[in-house]
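so i finally got all the pieces together for this one. its two components total, 555 residues if u count the protein bits. some of the lines might not be protein, just check the labels. i wanna see the whole assembly predicted at once instead of chain by chain like last time, that was a mess tbh
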Amino acid sequence: MTPEVTPDAPIFRPVAERAVLVDFGTAVNDAAHAAVLRLDRALADSPCPGFCESVPAFVNLLVVFDPLVTGHAAVEAHLRTLLSVPGGTRAAPVTHEVPVCYDADLAPDLGAVAARTGLSVEAVITAHLAGRYQVAMYGFAPGYAYLAGVPDAIRVDRKPAAVRGVAAGSVIIAGPQCLITTLTMPTGWWRIGRSPTAILTGDTDRPFLFGVGDAVRFRRLSRSAYEALR
Amino acid sequence: MTEATMRVGFAGPHVTLQDAGRPGLMRYGVPASGPMDRHSLAIANAALGNPVGQAGIDISLGGVALHCTHGAVTLALVGGGFIAEVAGRKFGSWCVFTLGQGEALTIRPGPWGSWASLAVAGRLVADPWLGSLATHGASGFGGGRLTTGQRLTIADAAVRVACEGPVPCPVWARPRHLLRCVMGPQDRFFTPEALANFTSARFAVTDAVDRMGVRLRGPALPPVAALSIPSEPVMRGSVQVSGDGAMAVLLADHQTTGGYPKIATVIAPDLDGFVQCRPGDLVRFAPLSPADAVQATRHHAQRVQAFLARIRQLRGGAGPAPEEG
């Protein structure tokens, strides 16, 4: 039913009158995501006439254009040209260090994650700190950056039902992904810590802390340091 | 230059400040937001001689009441067929009128439509978020939701007598029940029967509607083998089908990514009329080729531009009226 899609043989899918979705794969994989980021960068460097915005995700890139200026075929042709040019050497990704406090009242699901993974609470924290994360994409709500790279040892499926009123700044995990929430929202992910770092920075020049593709490391924060920073 | 002040007597749910929106930030999880019916805000602004994207009040079926506590200001109410009342005088939307000091304005749903825009001859004062006063409903970021007791300030408030009077309602600003769309980008997850049902059946608009989207009721179109597709970008107009086959059309405050397959995407020109449908209204989807969708959009844009230019002329010139106070 689904044709073979690979990072080397992407599929271009028209979306309404104003976008093309470029699929580089059907399941989450590093090669597909790397291809998404490569095309996203190439397009930012060489936008086509009528280009409006691009939205990178795990395995595809949405390219939105102004239909009064251009059309699907012209945009697809431009993207194919970009793909045919070998990618330049990539600048080293920006690395962000995000402090997290793992105190029990700020991390109400740490015990449950420990129970599910057969680890101690300390071992869950150590594993979370050891992970090397990459901003795979934003989604769901403003500033919700999906960080790929949760270590195998602490990967747990999301809860069957969402918990309401999860505070902004919560560090939550589900499967291979970790996220720092920006709003008080319901979530079915596991709350394993709290960070004083705002992803929505309030800085007009750089309103979002992370760029897609950036690297993230977590650093443990004492309660007093957390209280001082928040 | 003068100022007017209004106190919010009441505001229904989803009554928000909206300008033309903040496009270009979907990569950060931020949809463009903006009015539910973008035509209505543009026409309301044109009728006042404002730039078409200037901030106004987006009004839901919940309605709104405003009490002018200081100053006077000319307003344009455009969108669904709502009913306004000022000092015991009732009149329909598609109207430019002036609210004087001490007068109260109540806006409630009328014979048709679900959303209306109230534009002001002046500038609604609020803190922008990311360069726009458009309100993202779920977070409240932007100009914000209107709340009872709140005070709204209008800077450079003007009385524009030359603008007052009825505004003609073009046919394309009426509720739209035939939704032109381009199939996909995930129509491959549906059986030929489901795809045939999608384009032939009628779907009822439900009351499960907010700024993020609206649920439709109709034949279930369960996707096959799509339960684990990676979360991918979605747009205003995406027709998303959940695992049990229930359908929703995403609107102004849509999530920017989602893991449900999108059977089709409604073209932008038809979304503004679509949101004016009421719960129970029946809609049908009409697939277009991508090239035809582009052509239809260009044709529609020309029609809208010509209409906006005519409204400006009718209402006393391209700029603010001379009696601006």
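The helical segments of chain A are 30-45, 72-84, 110-117, 121-130, 223-229.
The CA atoms of residues 98 and 218 of chain A lie 5 Å apart.
anyway lmk what u think
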